[in-house]
């Protein structure tokens, strides 16, 4: 539990809390978690999951306690076992390894990530050099690059665009990681268009609707707040981007896993506190933070809706439905 406020130390609860809405779980995360839960009910423990099913320590720990085993290599999974691919997607190499080991595979890749994989394959068939805007080492990026490693160049900055080597400037395509910052991507896309004016992009942007909505909500409440509290794990790309978006609006931000991670000195002088949650953070973590502040004396708590209610739903993987 977080340290209680102590007036002598200058820690006082904020007078007002603004809850960003939308926040928390997106459709792809819900689908991935439900996939593991369903698999555990259907076949029992252990169920193996390639990487963390989503990037949240609470979700991973809770599923682990119920029998999910998270692995970083397909070779770690006993032959004939059930293996679930995480929401971030995997490369064709991992799929082949799973098949060779005789594993029963359930693919929980977010459909929006699958869309990016399909784009990579399409552009590669057209003989294009593909500029993938994303963060090196992120599971989603690793999986996407595996679709066409000879064609893809990873870029994450304007400097990267200036230095990237391509065989033909008129045969360039662009795809992006789904969880990036809109502002960050905009700057890079402008640099790409400047150097490669004939570069083609997908008909629909790769950054997912949930990432867009959560960043928009933070942009709207940031000017009203002294501090934005982002609930999410540090290995969550979309959670880190939410903190960066707040700071780009000249509002301080603090990224925490839960109420126990709050750094109280950050709250000195905070009258209005904004709260949001990454797309892989459960809503109960938000509730616990709000209730803590309410118990400390915060009375004004407001929901700020920045977008229409998210009605996107993804069905469970076909392997489970069958």
Describe this structure in words.
- The protein is α/β, with parallel strands linked by helices.
- It has helices at 27-43, 57-65, 92-100, 111-125, 139-145, 158-163, 182-195, 209-221, 237-248, 283-296, 318-321, and strands at 16-21, 47-50, 68-71, 82-85, 104-107, 129-133, 152-155, 172-176, 227-231, 252-256, 272-277, 300-305.
- The chain is built from eleven helices and twelve strands.
- The strands form three sheets. It has a five-stranded parallel sheet.
- Strand 2 (47-50), helix 2 (57-65) and strand 3 (68-71) form a beta-alpha-beta unit.
- It is flat and about 60 Å long.
- The model is unreliable at 1-8 (pLDDT under 50).
List the helices and strands and how they pair.
Blueprint: E1 16-21, H1 27-43, E2 47-50, H2 57-65, E3 68-71, E4 82-85, H3 92-100, E5 104-107, H4 111-125, E6 129-133, H5 139-145, E7 152-155, H6 158-163, E8 172-176, H7 182-195, H8 209-221, E9 227-231, H9 237-248, E10 252-256, E11 272-277, H10 283-296, E12 300-305, H11 318-321
Parallel strand pairs: 1-11, 1-12, 2-3, 2-4, 4-5, 6-7, 6-8, 9-10, 9-11
Helix pairs in contact: 4-5, 8-9
């Amino acid at each position: 539990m977080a340290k209680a406020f102590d007036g002598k130390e200058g820690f006082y609860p904020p007078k007002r809390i603004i809850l960003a809405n939308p926040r928390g779980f997106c459709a792809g995360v819900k689908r991935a978690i439900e996939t593991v839960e369903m698999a555990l009910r259907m076949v029992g423990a252990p169920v193996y999951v390639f990487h963390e099913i989503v990037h949240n320590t609470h979700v991973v720990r809770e599923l682990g306690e119920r029998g999910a085993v998270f692995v970083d290599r397909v070779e770690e999974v006993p032959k004939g076992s059930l293996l679930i691919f995480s929401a971030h997607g995997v490369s064709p190499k991992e799929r082949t390894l799973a098949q060779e080991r005789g594993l029963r595979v359930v693919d929980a890749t977010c459909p929006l990530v699958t869309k990016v994989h399909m784009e990579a394959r399409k552009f590669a068939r057209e003989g294009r050099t593909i500029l993938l805007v994303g963060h090196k080492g992120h599971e989603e990026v690793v999986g996407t690059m595996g679709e066409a490693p000879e064609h893809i160049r990873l870029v994450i900055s304007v400097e990267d665009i200036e230095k990237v080597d391509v065989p033909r400037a008129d045969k360039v395509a662009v795809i992006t990681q789904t969880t990036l910052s809109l502002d960050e991507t905009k700057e890079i896309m402008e640099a790409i268009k400047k150097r490669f004016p004939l570069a083609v992009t997908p008909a629909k942007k790769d950054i997912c609707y949930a990432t867009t909505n959560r960043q928009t909500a933070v942009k709207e409440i940031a000017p009203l707040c002294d501090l934005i509290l982002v609930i999410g794990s540090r290995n969550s790309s979309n959670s880190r981007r939410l903190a960066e978006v707040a700071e780009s609006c000249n509002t301080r931000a603090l990224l925490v896993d839960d109420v126990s991670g709050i750094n109280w000195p950050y709250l000195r002088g905070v009258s209005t506190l904004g709260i949001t949650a990454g797309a892989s953070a459960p809503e109960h973590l938000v509730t616990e933070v709000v209730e803590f502040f309410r118990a400390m004396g915060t009375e004004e708590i407001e929901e700020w809706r920045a977008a229409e209610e998210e009605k996107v739903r993804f069905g469970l993987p076909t392997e489970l439905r069958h």
